[in-house]
Design a protein that fits this description.
By secondary structure, the chain is mostly beta strands. Helix content is about 10%, strand content about 40%.
């Protein structure tokens, strides 16, 4: 399992992981965009049974979200697909989408406050 939070593997590997676009804060006097200095990373699971969602939720609760965490994520904009440990991250609450034929869809976990290396 390449993705890890606080050195703990995720029980069900996410089907998708992606770096989110940075939040645009505004423009300076020359019209240059000013972005939020940190990034966000989203982990996403597709169609999951209620039991599978419970597994992910139970894992989420055991690793705790009371402070900052460390996460092994793909390096941002790196020439090779490799993982790096980022620290000082906050974790949003697990979001679970709607039911579809007795299953949940769009289970997501958003990691925020990630400082990436400059490329």
């Amino acid at each position: 399992m390449p993705y890890q939070i606080n050195s703990t593997g995720i029980p069900l590997e996410p089907e998708e992981g992606r770096w989110m676009p940075r939040v645009l804060l505004g423009y300076d006097g020359n019209g240059r965009p000013i972005y939020e200095p940190t990034r966000q990373f989203e982990l996403r699971w597709g169609l999951k049974t209620p039991g599978q969602v419970w597994q992910i939720q139970e894992w989420f609760e055991t690793i705790g979200a009371t402070g900052t965490i460390s996460a092994d994520l793909p390096r941002y904009a790196w020439p090779a697909y490799e993982f790096r440990t980022y620290s000082g991250i906050y974790m949003n609450e697990l979001e679970v989408g709607s039911f579809f034929t007795e299953n949940y869809r769009d289970v997501t976990l958003l990691l925020t406050n990630i400082t990436t290396e400059e490329v």
